[in-house]
Amino acid sequence: xxxxxxxxxxxxxxxxxxxxxxxxxxxxxxxxxxxxxxxxxxxxxxxxxxxxxxxxxxxxxxxxxxxxxxxxxxxxxxxxxxxxxxxxxxxxxxxxxxxxxxxxxxxxxxxxxxx
Length: 115
Description:
Elements: H1 3-14, H2 19-29, H3 31-41, E1 45-47, E2 52-55, E3 60-64, E4 67-68, H4 71-75, H5 87-98, E5 102-103, H6 108-114
Parallel strand pairs: 1-5
Antiparallel strand pairs: 1-2, 2-3, 3-4
Helix pairs in contact: 1-2, 2-3, 3-5
């Protein structure tokens, strides 16, 4: 079991963010963990019929199957290491565990046309 698994299990069990869980997320993931927590608190994790999307500062990023469309995931992180995840994937993990995903009954591909 990795450190990432530990905080995910603790979060599912607690059903809320505790100081200990926040500390573990930040110590394990650093700035990526902080950005993920900010995104969840700002309700920037959106689930559409086809994709889960995290709204970033400059763009929106599709997260599926533990991967993300961001450049950080593509170039900087080891996809085989479960503790190396971009902040978008971490935000989805936290939001799902807390029931804080903003659900939209529409297709993201249709929403994307307006952006």
